[in-house]
Specification:
Order of helices and strands: EEEEEHHEEEEEEEEEEEEEEEHHEE
Strand order of the largest sheet: 1-5-18-7-15-19-20-22-21
Radius of gyration: 20 Å
Shape: globular
CATH superfamily of the largest domain: Acetamidase/Formamidase-like domains
Distance between the termini: 22 Å
Number of domains: 3
Number of helices: 4
Largest sheet: 9 strands, mixed
CATH class of the largest domain: Mainly Beta
């Protein structure tokens, strides 16, 4: 069982069989959807390392700072009509040999490096306070300081039209740029907003709502040093990554994080020794489960039930697990802006049976 498979504070690296490079090219990306019928962009063995490029679809908020020639090529190659039904630009899919429905794919995120030293936040029409703030969309461009691992706002501008075309390119030199957040710095914590396996469903499945396949979970803890477990739904898993961020708070209130492209190094391990219903996150200090639903009440209940299941697998009775949920489980909002809202519950690894540190 996953809870008991190692005793350290971080999961050791499985001896890799190969290192693959998966660049974001028109042939290796799919925009706005997961699809079980997609041909793999890459085929790997369990234990292989993958160095992959994850591109933000918000790069057009300032193309001079956030796009290069390779990205412009993708924007030209994929017509706007083919960026549907979701919005996220996904790299993949990756086919894991011998992965079958019911297996688990363990993804060990090893490093996440910004492609550029800039990112964008959009206060969008799907944000929680859009109507309260005058029903306008506002872009804030941030600069990264690697020396302090922080980001600060460079400027902001308002956009009259709603963000309806994924990858919209704004003519920023013509924008009315305004100062923003003077003197404020925020910590940089790169992570993937969207990643997951292909759902067992016909046709395209939107990247916007999160679900049991993963998808748009938007948990900022899914960064370097974290391990995610996804339940395989179709042969090979068909795992893809996208929606890279460099900073986000729980809730993602305005509609987006600081959206910024990342180079991601990760290891994929096929697990046939356990199963779990929903996307499971393991960090050096916590186990974290996720719940999704049309309301926060439904999402919170789903997360609580899955944490109850996880604790029972660790050897606790239902009653003991339920008590522990209340006294040590931290239930929080992951995001409220993806249509299907998300919650997460975390519990410290070192309080579980057999996990206490000396």
């Amino acid at each position: 069982m996953v809870l008991m498979c190692d005793s350290g504070s971080a999961r050791p690296l499985v001896a890799p069989k190969a290192l693959h490079h998966l660049n974001a090219t028109p042939q290796n990306v799919h925009w706005g959807y997961f699809d079980a019928a997609l041909a793999p962009a890459l085929v790997v063995e369990s234990g292989d390392l993958i160095q992959a490029e994850a591109l933000t679809h918000h790069a057009g908020d300032d193309p001079a700072l956030l796009m290069d020639d390779a990205m412009h090529q993708i924007w030209r190659a994929i017509p706007e009509a083919d960026r549907a039904p979701g919005v996220h630009l996904m790299t993949g899919p990756i086919y894991v040999r011998d992965a079958r429905p019911g297996d688990m794919i363990e993804v060990r995120y090893l490093s996440m490096t910004p492609r550029f030293r800039y990112g964008s936040n959009l206060a969008a029409h799907w944000g929680q306070l859009y109507s309260e703030l005058g029903e306008r969309e506002r872009v804030t461009i941030y600069g990264l300081d690697p020396a302090t691992n922080t980001a600060e706002a460079l400027y902001a501008y308002d956009v009259r039209e709603k963000y309806l075309v994924p990858g919209r390119i704004t003519a920023c030199p013509e924008c009315d740029r305004q100062p923003a957040l003077a003197g404020v710095r925020v910590p940089v914590r790169p992570h993937l907003g969207t990643a997951g396996v292909a759902p067992d469903a016909p046709g395209r499945v939107s990247t916007i709502p999160p679900g049991l396949h993963g998808g748009n979970i938007d948990n900022w803890r899914i960064g370097a040093g974290a391990t995610m477990y996804y339940k395989v739904q179709v042969d090979g898993g068909l795992f893809s990554i996208g929606d890279p961020h460099i900073s986000q708070g729980d809730g993602e209130i305005s509609g987006t994080a600081i959206e910024a492209s990342l180079d991601v190094l990760f290891q994929v391990v096929l697990r046939k020794d356990f199963t779990f219903r929903s996307p499971l996150l393991e960090t050096p200090d916590h186990f974290i489960v996720h719940g999704f639903g049309d309301t926060l009440d439904i999402a919170a209940r789903e997360a609580s039930l899955d944490m109850l299941s996880l604790l029972k697998e660790a050897g606790l009775s239902s009653d003991d697990a339920y008590s522990l949920l209340s006294i040590s489980g931290d239930l929080a909002v992951t995001q409220v802006v993806d249509g299907t809202v998300g919650t997460h519950m975390k519990i410290r690894r070192d309080i579980l049976p057999g996990r206490r540190k000396s």
